[in-house]
Amino acid sequence: RGLIGDARVLFLDEPTTGMDPLAAREFRRLVMELKGEGRTILLTTHDMVEAELVCDRVSLIDRGRILATETPRSLGTLISRFQRIDVEGAPAGLPAELEALSGVASVSSQLDGTARIEVNEEGAMAEVLRHLVEAGVTSVRTSLPSLEEVYVRVIGERGLEI
Questions:
Q1: Other Cβ atoms closer than 10 A to 119
Q2: Tens digit of pLDDT for each residue in 111-146?
Q3: Based on the domain organization, do 57 and 88 belong to the same domain?
């Protein structure tokens, strides 16, 4: 903090590279504190988790070209129109039952009773959740693609137009 002074704009280039996890966590806490003070922070990082945790907006840059600039959450919608539901405690027959529902794009299940359901229609989410409750599923969480998944899809598939 002593090195930062009263600068209103900070440029941070891979600031947590080489830091142990505790030091990186403390640094991210400091960045959040500085944001709270109204400072502008431009951060370059290859750590997508770090970007999701501290950035209000993220730009994906490839070969000097900005491909997209959005909130971390909004970037997930660029590559997927699906809403994801991750569940634990899914009975054996539930995935097949869910796949038959209108608006369910895919269901992937594991032997340990976990499953991921991708829903691509507005009204389908309520119907899927009703089935999950009736089946006695013990844990349900919704999510969008992570920033890492977005990066891999956008940068890894250089032809993807945004």
A1: 25
A2: 888 899 989 887 888 899 999 999 988 899 988 788
A3: no
